[in-house]
Amino acid sequence: MATNPPSTPAPWRDAFVKHITAMPSPTFVLSTLHANPDSASPFPTLPRARTCVFRGMWATLPDNERNPAPRNPAVFDSDLPTFTTDVRMEKAGEIIGTAPGGGTGASDIRGTGGGGPVEAIYWAAEHGTQWRVRGTAWVLGPDVDGDRDGAARAKGVLRGRMRRTGDAAGGRGLGGEEGEKKEGWSWSREVTGAFGNMSPIMRGTFRNPSPGSPLIIPVPPETGLGLGQMVEDLEDPVARANFRVVVIVPTEVDQVDLSDAKQPKRWLHVYRGASYKSTQPGGEVIGEWETVELWP
């Protein structure tokens, strides 16, 4: 767990954000590990991949004039891509359950936590560039401000990769909870802001019947679940119980520029932490990252 947050943006961040936000639909493929239910199989885990939507970088919510949620002060930013999911979908449990020491019980999966390995692949066709982001993912839910071990671990890891900006710049350490309170910055407010950034019909999907459950099983009316609902209330108890923000903490970023077919280029950016001295041939250390140009 990092103790010194980064003092400068990652060397790949500006290009990555520019490329992804230029996409007509900022989708990407997320891969996780799924526990194999077949105990006789030689493979304890199986790969899973699905299409997700990029929701901005953690702590810097995209501007949206239609978002009715209160915003955090703009005092932190990060190099951490985010997406949202329904906790009832398998990827939330996979992210939490495949982490070192991760639990697989219902309370573990439905709570804030994570640390499982992921890889996200973004194809930015407008710039002819493929981005492969490898690292761990952390699932933030309604209990993000609580004191459960999962929430404490998640916030500890993310704090280690957030940095101060603007008027808050000048100190590398965030100061933990005291620093956040001093700046008026709230984890739960950031999660609610991500929920508010969605349209009412998209918020309503978190009131759908449980994803992947058999259609033949009736949905009791008292649950309030059903397709096609519009959710205006940002604290809707059913939708918010299912809504999650997932934050990817990159350890490697593989950038392949294919915009010039005759001169393709490729770089591998590896997170090294503070005070690292490069030992890689051609390696260049910028902040906490080492970049090596590779043959494509």
Describe this structure as you would to a colleague.
- One of its GO terms (molecular function) is FMN binding.
- InterPro entries: Pyridox_Oxase_Alr4036_FMN-bd (IPR024624), Split_barrel_FMN-bd (IPR012349).
- Residues 10-140 form the Pyridoxamine 5'-phosphate oxidase Alr4036 family FMN-binding domain.
- It comes from Lasiosphaeria hispida.
- Pfam families: Pyridox_oxase_2 (PF12766).
- This protein is α+β, with helices and mostly antiparallel strands.
- The protein has a single domain (13-294), classed as Roll (Pnp Oxidase, Chain A).
- 21% of the residues lie in helices and 28% in strands.
- The protein has eight helices and eleven strands.
- Strands 1, 2, 4, 5, 6, 8, 9, 10 and 11 form a nine-stranded antiparallel beta sheet that branches. It has a two-stranded antiparallel sheet with strand order 3-7.
- The radius of gyration is 20 Å and the shape is globular.
Question: Would you summarize the structure shown here?
Answer:
This protein has 296 residues and is of the alpha+beta class. It has 8 helices and 11 strands. Strands 1, 2, 4, 5, 6, 8, 9, 10 and 11 form a 9-stranded antiparallel sheet that branches. Strands 3-7 form a two-stranded antiparallel sheet.
The number of distinct structural domains comes to 1
CATH level 3 topology:
Pnp Oxidase, Chain A
The helicity comes to 10-25%
Structural class: alpha+beta
